[in-house]
Automatic annotation (TrEMBL):
<feature type="transmembrane region" description="Helical">
    <location>
        <begin position="379"/>
        <end position="402"/>
    </location>
</feature>
<feature type="transmembrane region" description="Helical">
    <location>
        <begin position="313"/>
        <end position="334"/>
    </location>
</feature>
<protein>
    <submittedName>
        <fullName>Major facilitator superfamily domain-containing protein</fullName>
    </submittedName>
</protein>
<feature type="domain" description="Major facilitator superfamily (MFS) profile">
    <location>
        <begin position="1"/>
        <end position="398"/>
    </location>
</feature>
<keyword id="KW-0812">Transmembrane</keyword>
<feature type="transmembrane region" description="Helical">
    <location>
        <begin position="221"/>
        <end position="244"/>
    </location>
</feature>
<keyword id="KW-1133">Transmembrane helix</keyword>
<dbReference type="InterPro" id="IPR020846">
    <property type="entry name" value="MFS_dom"/>
</dbReference>
<dbReference type="InterPro" id="IPR036259">
    <property type="entry name" value="MFS_trans_sf"/>
</dbReference>
<feature type="transmembrane region" description="Helical">
    <location>
        <begin position="33"/>
        <end position="55"/>
    </location>
</feature>
<feature type="transmembrane region" description="Helical">
    <location>
        <begin position="155"/>
        <end position="175"/>
    </location>
</feature>
<feature type="transmembrane region" description="Helical">
    <location>
        <begin position="123"/>
        <end position="143"/>
    </location>
</feature>
<dbReference type="GO" id="GO:0022857">
    <property type="term" value="F:transmembrane transporter activity"/>
</dbReference>
<feature type="transmembrane region" description="Helical">
    <location>
        <begin position="92"/>
        <end position="111"/>
    </location>
</feature>
<dbReference type="InterPro" id="IPR011701">
    <property type="entry name" value="MFS"/>
</dbReference>
<dbReference type="Pfam" id="PF07690">
    <property type="entry name" value="MFS_1"/>
</dbReference>
<keyword id="KW-0472">Membrane</keyword>
Length: 425
């Protein structure tokens, strides 16, 4: 999915020197381009809670597979657009098609695993999303040399849409749905998987919609602190990722093709960092709230360097580190976000709404990083520093409300760690 989301950023500067880039061919202004990126996230964010709940009311294999097939088809269709209206239309349809994928996968995992067992699994899931930036940068570089009968940016959308269609079709047949219906489990094994879960965990046999759970969810103060964390980090941390190749290009030491290549190391760094942190959190070696706060502080330091240092190499290094840290915050906190929601309906709505708020990264992120603020993007980074500072406050507040900021480990926690270790092995 992340390749299909990020390819618009790679396409932004593809073959710009030859005049065959998407902005020139479609006659787009800087504001047009910002809207082309942002319009995807309006239907995506709005439909996230509804699409997430359809995981339960249909089946995970059908709904996740449907999402992948439809988004792959629409991505291929973007290669055929001839004007700004066509680009906006296909991007809006793409957002509607993809809605629910990330929260749906996390909701799906909650039917199988305890929240304490989700940290590493979600980290791995998200880390491959980060790798998509690496793959997308490589494909954009390679496709830049295919500029000919079709412009490189059109080839990029075609090549990146086809795998989603094929994987979506495979998902219909491969993905097991719920523990109660998994054919690879015997009756006794199904019972063990279900009994391990808490009474508040999502379950196939529960009602899909429970109004009482929804009311209790909105009255829970952690719903609002987690939501504020996701919103602030979306713009302050993730906003940069949607224009990263352009920001790298504006550093002034590379071509557009090499700028796409230089967008690859930050994605690789995020992949490595995220898996290490996910393992440390799941093994209870590090507290997820303090890890998330530390990541935000490092991100702030990187943005301060980008505001104050002119050396191109230092600025690129700061971009690399900030991209890696920004991409790690959500996955580290997701298990705690799931744990704070009680019940099948509450979990689905909480996960869907929380992830919907993350889509402000694509709605407001491109506005914060408009090219008119380049090449220094001073205003952009000042805004991001303020939002990340607020995110630190909300992360700490969430942990304090749940009583999970402490360092001391109780005897029960040690026993639970041993059980998790045995299960993981």
């Amino acid at each position: 999915m992340r390749i299909d989301v990020n390819n618009i950023s790679n396409a932004a500067i593809l073959n710009e020197e030859q005049g065959d880039d998407i902005k020139t061919q479609l006659g787009l202004t800087a504001q047009d381009w910002a809207w082309a990126i942002a319009c995807f996230y309006y239907p995506y964010g709005f439909l996230e809670p509804f699409s997430t709940m359809l995981i339960k009311s249909t089946t995970p294999s059908f709904w996740i597979g449907r999402i992948m097939v439809t988004w792959g088809i629409i991505v291929c269709c973007i290669a055929t657009v001839q004007n700004y209206a066509g680009l906006i239309s296909t991007r809006v349809l793409l957002g509607a098609a993809e809605a629910g994928y990330y929260p749906g996968v996390i909701y799906y995992l909650a039917f199988w695993f305890k929240p304490e067992e989700l940290a590493l699994r979600v980290a791995i899931f998200y880390s491959f999303g980060q790798v998509s930036g690496f793959v997308g940068g490589f494909l954009a570089y390679a496709v830049s040399f295919a500029d000919g009968v079709l412009p490189g940016w059109r080839w990029l959308f075609i090549i990146e849409g086809i795998p989603a269609i094929l994987m979506g079709i495979a998902t219909f047949f491969i993905l097991p749905d719920f523990p109660q219906t998994a054919k690879f489990l015997h009756d006794k094994e199904q019972a063990i998987v279900i009994q391990r879960l808490s009474e508040d965990a999502p379950t196939k046999v529960a009602k899909t919609w429970d109004r009482r759970q929804v009311v209790e969810l909105f009255l829970d103060p952690t719903f609002w602190t987690f939501s504020a964390t996701w919103f602030c980090h979306a713009i302050g941390g993730f906003g940069l990722s949607y224009v990263l190749p352009t920001v790298i290009y504006d550093l002034g030491f590379t071509t557009t093709a090499l700028s796409n290549v230089l967008s690859m190391p930050p994605s690789l760094a995020a992949f490595v960092l995220l898996n290490i942190l996910g393992w440390l959190v799941q093994m209870r070696k590090w507290n997820p709230y303090w890890v998330a706060i530390g990541l935000e502080v490092v991100n702030i330091i990187c943005y301060v360097l980008l505001l104050t240092v002119d050396a191109v190499a230092v600025r690129y290094l700061a971009l690399l580190v900030s991209t890696a840290t920004a991409g790690s915050v959500y996955p580290i906190l997701w298990s705690n976000r799931v744990k704070a929601a009680h019940g099948t309906t509450a979990a689905g709505i909480a996960i869907g709404i929380t992830n919907a708020l993350a889509q402000f990264s694509g709605i407001l992120g491109p506005q914060v990083f408009l090219s008119i603020y380049g090449p220094t993007y001073r205003v952009s980074f000042i805004v991001c520093v303020g939002l990340l500072a607020a995110a630190v406050v909300f992360i700490a507040t969430s942990g304090a409300l749940l009583g999970e900021l402490g360092f001391r480990r109780t005897e029960d926690t040690v026993i639970e760690d041993k059980e998790n270790s045995l299960y993981s092995s």
